[in-house]
Amino acid sequence: MTHGHLTDRSVASAKALPGQRFEISDGRTPGLSLRLNGATSKTWVLRYRTRDQRQMRLTLGKTSTLSLRDARALAAEHLLRIAHGSDPATEKRQERAAPAHGVSTFAQLADLYEQVCASGEWRPKGKTKRASVMREERRVLDKTILPQLGRLPFATITRQEVKALLRAQYAKGARTTVNRTHAVIRQIFNYAISEDLVQVNPATGFSRFAEERPRETIWKDVELRSLWVGLSDPAALRAPGGGYANVGEAMCIAIKLVLLLGQRRTEIAGMEVEELDFEARVWRIRSERMKGGRAHIVPLSDAAVALIRKAIALASEGQDQAPRYVFPTNRHEDRAIRSMSLSLALQRTRNALGLGQATLHDMRRTVSTNLTSERCGVSPFIRSKVLGHIDAGGGAMVSMTHYDVNDYVAEKRRALEIWTKVLLRIVGDTELPDGRPGPRPLYSEAFARADNDNTTDGRPDSSLSELKFWQPPSV
Question: Do the record's keywords include Magnesium (predicted)?
């Protein structure tokens, strides 16, 4: 860079050789320089440092439209703004980028974020977001974020405005919701940073408002029995204020399947007929529907098959063609019920029966706890496989994740059949397969684990004899 005192004459006569580029600084205005590129291109630029000491360059315009006097005046205006903390080069870049995306408000930015997540263009964790996750993010946006921030220009939103929104939610007692709201705002601005739409994420730099403690609730046997009886006769359910509880038979079946199979509510609610193989008695859940992104095979007991067939029959009533979903929505849409609809059905059932606040996920925890208890005697490794978790089983996680594609179907089937017998004995269901009535001892002296059969004489089921502990042969 050449230093000197620029004049109108020196600006007009300044030239660079073809292919050469250099700058002549103005000795009168700090940071202002004349940028020469070849013999004809002459541009005014302003160099400055931000408050965090980043070196920036702002193009002011060409000499053909901006005289030396005007360039000095414009540079002085920018230097005054910079002294007050502005960053005009970054602001100019954002203005150029915004029209390309067509966004200016936070609501428009949220829509753009949703589009790039759905297309797979934006994959912050290296994988495309599942549809259920995006639906939950949209629900949080519509309910808690957009009413407050939606109309604001996203580039002007400050950390204090984000914290004010979160504080208001926290004050209402929405402990879990406030953290989800925080996460959604943070992710949207992370995308904006990746597109150079903003430089700072206003949802970072402070900790979560609410401390989330893992739930430990499990359904007690007496609660399971009461719930199961109510689900078996939904027409008899009454709301606390009188009138029907409005819980359909299909919803009752879906809740029962959560208990029988131990799968997530989203997986049960979105069950597709094509995923079912009744001949092999398995349910193959596609990888895109699983939380972990890996396909999952769920063995089906006779009781589960009976309930699923009944649900398909209900879905087929009044239809000209076979249903795509086991639990289709009753609206005129080609989709399954929402997982939140399943939670609402359970809430109405609980209220009608006077039960506590245990949830569908607590049912999954109940299944998990019972599988590894003395009642079932299933190993924690197989329990994890039943639930669709990735468990190294004491080995290297990389081996389980990348080199072990075993589905452990036989072991999972044995575990779920044992649990089915235990559950149906708890709830007293003698109509479904494996729900045979009759007293029996909980433990068998012949076995080192619970004898989970429902035979009337208390003898162990021969089909479960292979589950007893192995004894070395006598020499």
Answer: no
DSSP letter at 469 equals P
Task: Report if residue 449 sits inside a domain.
Answer: no
CB atoms within 10 A of CB 306: 16
Cβ proximity of 151 and 187 under 8 Å: no
Read off the DSSP letter of residue 219. Answer: -
Statement to judge: residues 418 and 313 lie in one domain = yes
HEC string of 232-244? Answer: HCHHHCECCCCCE
Q: Which residues neighbour 412 within 8 Å (Cβ) at sequence distance 6 or greater?
A: 297, 298, 299, 382, 385, 386
Q: Is residue 465 part of a domain?
A: no
Domain with residue 122: its CATH number is 1.10.150.130
Copy the structure tokens of residue 402.
């990348």
How many residues in total does the chain contain?
475
For 329, residues 6+ apart whose C-beta sits below 8 A from its C-beta are: 335, 336, 337, 338, 341
pLDDT in tens, 15-35: 877 778 888 999 889 999 999
Secondary structure of 123-190 in HEC code, one letter for each residue: CCCCCCCCHHHHHHHHHHHHHHHHHHHCCCEHHHCCHHHHHHHHHHHHHCCCHHHHHHHHHHHHHHHH
* Helix, coil or strand: residue 349: helix
Closest CA to 292 of 119, 123, 127: 127
Sheet with 276-277, strands from edge to edge, namely 276-277, 282-285, 296-299
Residue that is written with structure tokens 């249903």 in the block:
323
Q: What is the CATH number of the domain that holds 7?
A: 3.30.160.390
Is residue 457's pLDDT more than 60? Answer: no
Residue 373: which domain range?
221-437
Do 109 and 76 sit in the same domain of this protein? no
Same domain, 112 and 229: no
**Predicted TM-score of the model (pTM):** 0.62
Q: What CATH number did the domain enclosing 350 receive? A: 1.10.443.10
Residues 247 and 352 in one domain: yes
pLDDT score, position 252:
95
pLDDT at 73 over 50: yes
Phi and psi, residue 200, nearest 5°: -130, 140
Total number of domains constituting the chain:
3
130 in Cβ contact with 291 (< 8 Å): yes
Q: What single-letter DSSP state applies at residue 384?
A: H
Does the pLDDT value for residue 261 go beyond 50? yes
Pair of tokens at residue 84: 């007050």
In 292-396 the beta strands, taken as DSSP E runs, fall at 296-299
Q: What is the rounded CA–CA span in Å between residue 308 and residue 395?
A: 36
- DSSP H helices, 5-44, are 8-13
Give dist(CA 403, CA 407) in Å, integer.
12
User: What is the C-alpha separation between 456 and 274, in angstroms, rounded?
Assistant: 38
